[in-house]
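User: My instructor asked us to take a sequence, write out its structure as tokens, and then describe one feature of it. I'm not sure where to start. Here is the sequence I was given:
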Amino acid sequence: MAQLYFKYGAMGSSKTANALMARFNYEERGQRVLLAKPQLDTRDGDHMVRSRIGLTYPCVYFHEMQAMDDAELQTYNCIIVDEAQFLAREEVQYLVHLVDDCNIPVICYGLRSDFKGELFPGNYELLAMADKIEEVKTICWCGKKATFNARFDENSVVLKEGAQVVIGANDQYIGLCRKHWREGNLGPDFHPVAKIGDDRFLC
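Assistant: Let's start with the prediction itself. The structure tokens for your sequence are:
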């Protein structure tokens, strides 16, 4: 019986690496996998998924998957969706259709909440509709589990206001535990990573 999975984590928890490793594990066993992501996420180049540790693989955009016939999608043993926090509610319902009506397992990877601690619209639907919800864990600078995504400015001040999705750089976000996210505390040894020169959609 196919199921809808939502695997969430804070920034830096290797969600994308986990998605790419899951794809590899399926295909290593001779099974077909369709890797998809919302087109909003263009930071890794056209039709590409890339993890922080350097793993990459081509993908289709979510709307391109929606344009495919159900019969064609049923030739895949699994569908993996990266950056699932960017999905709209109706797109999550489309994934429910693929699971319930087409019997295709779907695994979604994404952030649980934005830099303000608020859920993305698609996350409401994923948390409500997923058969299984799992956390991909990482740690705060203090050693506790990081559950919040902090956005900070050029002065290393943690921001709590602004657009939910912006064009920014990868060095403007870090995973923190709730206490240090609330305090805006990036840690005594925090030093921003040097800019790498590419604009990225982050949240």
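For the description part of your assignment, you could build on this observation: Residues 148-202 form one domain. Try explaining in your own words what that tells you about the chain.
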